[in-house]
């Protein structure tokens, strides 16, 4: 090999390694900015029902960009023989209902998303006691949860 060919080869290796390092630094910065947003769902209670849990808004491309939540739903008034449920509403969709068990606590870990969107940025969350068709359900005040991925 000639000396000029060896110098060119060494220069190319350094250039490739430099570009790789820049890519890693920029990739780390983007990952830090686009990390999932986590939080605690405020304690939700109403007559006969209670919920405690956490949530996260997944970044675009992770778990469908879903609103992911988990926690414990409890029927706190087992003698009334009414069931309890959690309802979740994400932007542009109706409420989705997840039933518990009468007289017991149930653990949930669920994800809600819109397949037409890259991410979910707004969700509403509430818990209720199902009192049948003749009487209205009693629900804890709904929680509005959000994160602005475009300006966050």
Uncertain parts? 24-33
* Number of DSSP helical runs: 1
- Cα distance, first to last residue? 54 Å
* Oligomeric category: single chain
Protein architecture, described:
The structure is a single chain. The chain is an alpha+beta fold and 152 residues long. The chain has one helix spanning 3-33, and strands at 37-46, 49-57, 67-75, 83-90, 96-99, 105-112, 122-130, 138-139, 143-146. β4 (83-90) and β5 form a beta hairpin. The longest helix is centred in the N-terminal third of the chain and has 31 residues, at 3-33. The radius of gyration is 24 Å and the shape is elongated. It starts with a helix and ends in a 6-residue tail after the last strand.
Describe, in short, the structure shown:
The chain is α+β, with helices and mostly antiparallel strands and about 150 residues long.
List keywords for this structure.
single chain, 20% helix, alpha+beta, 152 residues, five-stranded antiparallel β-sheet
